[in-house]
Amino acid sequence: MSEPPMREIECFLVLAEELHFGRTGERLFISQSRVSQLISALERRIGTSLVARTSRRVHLTEFGADFLASLAPAHRALVGVIEDAQSRARNMPAPLRVGFQGAIYDSIAAAVSRFEIQHPQTCVTIKELPLGDPFSDVLAGRIDAAVALLPVDEPELTTGLVFSRQPQTLAVSVHHPFSELGVIDAEQLAQICLVPITGPAPDYWQRVNSPSTTPGGATIPTQGGASTVQEGLSQVAFSQVGLILCAATAAYSQRSDITFVPINGLPESALGLVWRTDLESPRLRAFAKAIEEAHTCPS
C-alpha cells in the first residue's frame, strides 16, 4: 500500500472549507496553481473528480462530499494522535483549547484560573472567535470548546452549560436622538439602521443576535456590517447606525462617543459552553463546572 498523500489531503480539506482556490493557497502558503495541481493529483490517485470548478464558483462533487465525510474525522484523529504524542514527549500539560466570542469577562478569567489550579496537568489556551462565526472552529476540531452566544442548534454540538443571561442594549452615537432616551422599545428598532453581524453563522442564530425584524414584524433597516464588536462600534461612533449588544458587553465596551440604551421587548442574551458531542470528555465537563462555579460563587 502506498503512503498517504498528506499534502494532497491537507489541500483538499482546506479547499473543502474555503471553496476558493486563492484563499486555500493563502492558508497553505502556496500558489493558486499549486492548489490546483495538488487537487488534480489527488483526483487522479482516487480515480474520480472531487471538486467541480466553474468560472464563478467551486463546490464538491457528490463523491467529493462523501469522501470528505469519511476523510475529515480520520484526519482529525490523526492530528490528535500526533499532538498528544508531542505533548507527552515534551512532558507539557495537555492544552484545553477554548474559543471565546467577544470579551473574556472577569468571571470567565476566574474560571480559567480555577480550572488550571484544580487540574495542573491541563493548561487552557485561548482563541478569539469572530462575532459572526461562533461554531466553525469547534465543529472543525480546531478548538475543544467554544463560549458562544446562544442559540445553538447544531446536531453535532452539545451545550454543556448556559450562563451569563443578560438584557439587550442598543449602542448608538452620543449624537443620535436615541442617546437621550433612558430606554427604548424593541419596536423602535425599525426607526434606526442596525449594523448587521456578518459571517457564516446559521440563519437561526442571526435571527436572534442580528434581527432583521422587530418582535411585531416591522422591518429593521441595516447598513454596513461587522465581524467583531469593535468593528461594529467604530461604525456606530461615526454614523447614525446602531448595534445590539448585551449589557455585559456594553459595560465592557464603554467609550465617550457611544451611549448604550437598554431595550425593552427583546429576549435576554445568554452564553453557552459548547463542544462536539463525539469529543466530550471529563476535562470539558470539569471546565464547565469551573465556569458554573465562577458565576454562582464569584468569590
Automatic annotation (TrEMBL):
<dbReference type="GO" id="GO:0003677">
    <property type="term" value="F:DNA binding"/>
</dbReference>
<dbReference type="Pfam" id="PF03466">
    <property type="entry name" value="LysR_substrate"/>
</dbReference>
<dbReference type="InterPro" id="IPR036388">
    <property type="entry name" value="WH-like_DNA-bd_sf"/>
</dbReference>
<keyword id="KW-0238">DNA-binding</keyword>
<keyword id="KW-0805">Transcription regulation</keyword>
<dbReference type="Pfam" id="PF00126">
    <property type="entry name" value="HTH_1"/>
</dbReference>
<protein>
    <submittedName>
        <fullName>LysR family transcriptional regulator</fullName>
    </submittedName>
</protein>
<dbReference type="GO" id="GO:0032993">
    <property type="term" value="C:protein-DNA complex"/>
</dbReference>
<keyword id="KW-0804">Transcription</keyword>
<keyword id="KW-0010">Activator</keyword>
<feature type="domain" description="HTH lysR-type">
    <location>
        <begin position="4"/>
        <end position="61"/>
    </location>
</feature>
<comment type="similarity">
    <text>Belongs to the LysR transcriptional regulatory family.</text>
</comment>
<dbReference type="InterPro" id="IPR036390">
    <property type="entry name" value="WH_DNA-bd_sf"/>
</dbReference>
<dbReference type="GO" id="GO:0003700">
    <property type="term" value="F:DNA-binding transcription factor activity"/>
</dbReference>
<dbReference type="InterPro" id="IPR005119">
    <property type="entry name" value="LysR_subst-bd"/>
</dbReference>
<dbReference type="InterPro" id="IPR000847">
    <property type="entry name" value="LysR_HTH_N"/>
</dbReference>
